[in-house]
């Protein structure tokens, strides 16, 4: 954590990634904004202990809530969430009204994407990825990714039912390549879902980060993310 003023920036990386994902962007944000900047490793990531069983977003939300309470940060938070951390952000903002002043979602999972049709069509790809991970040497990262695939469809059908509160500003930054480089159809569904999400509220913004990949977006276009965060802070301060 870097000390600073509120709103506090809470940076949350995607699946299989750790707080080191933000190692260059976090100090840049601290210098540019003067905000308190918090990074952390979710259970099973980085330096955190592994927990057996399937990954559950409710547990990740509870862990984040407990961690912020321990730091004394229980309001005026701006979430900066990448990939699956978008699910944590959505759960957190619903479970803790009044804590979150705004959010910047970085090519993040949004409820709009996980329709029944998408989950049915995507099932073979999930199984293929699962088998590929099982064929590799077992690592902490692989085990964490596999835990996300347990009950993937029912878990994400439940996520699809969630909505982002209308009173919490949010910017959705989308990588130009999307997570689905091998499936043009899935890539388009992702882009469409991100656009629908951004259009569903009066205080939402949609930004496409050109020349970026899903995992590499933070190092490929840190300027886009930093700019969105600074703009969000100006709006909520």
UniProtKB/TrEMBL annotation:
Q: Which Gene3D superfamilies match?
A: alpha/beta hydrolase
Q: Name one GO molecular function term.
A: hydrolase activity
InterPro entries (UniProt xref) = AB_hydrolase_1, AB_hydrolase_fold, AB_hydrolase_sf
SUPFAM superfamilies with a match to the protein in the record: alpha/beta-Hydrolases
Which residue spans traverse the membrane?
none
Q: Which UniProt keywords apply?
A: Hydrolase
Pfam families xrefs: Abhydrolase_6
Keyword Cytoplasm in record: no
Where would I find the AB hydrolase-1 domain in this sequence?
A: 10-227
What is the protein's name according to its record?
A: Alpha/beta hydrolase
Query: Which taxonomic lineage is given here?
Result: Bacteria, Bacillati, Actinomycetota, Actinomycetes, Pseudonocardiales
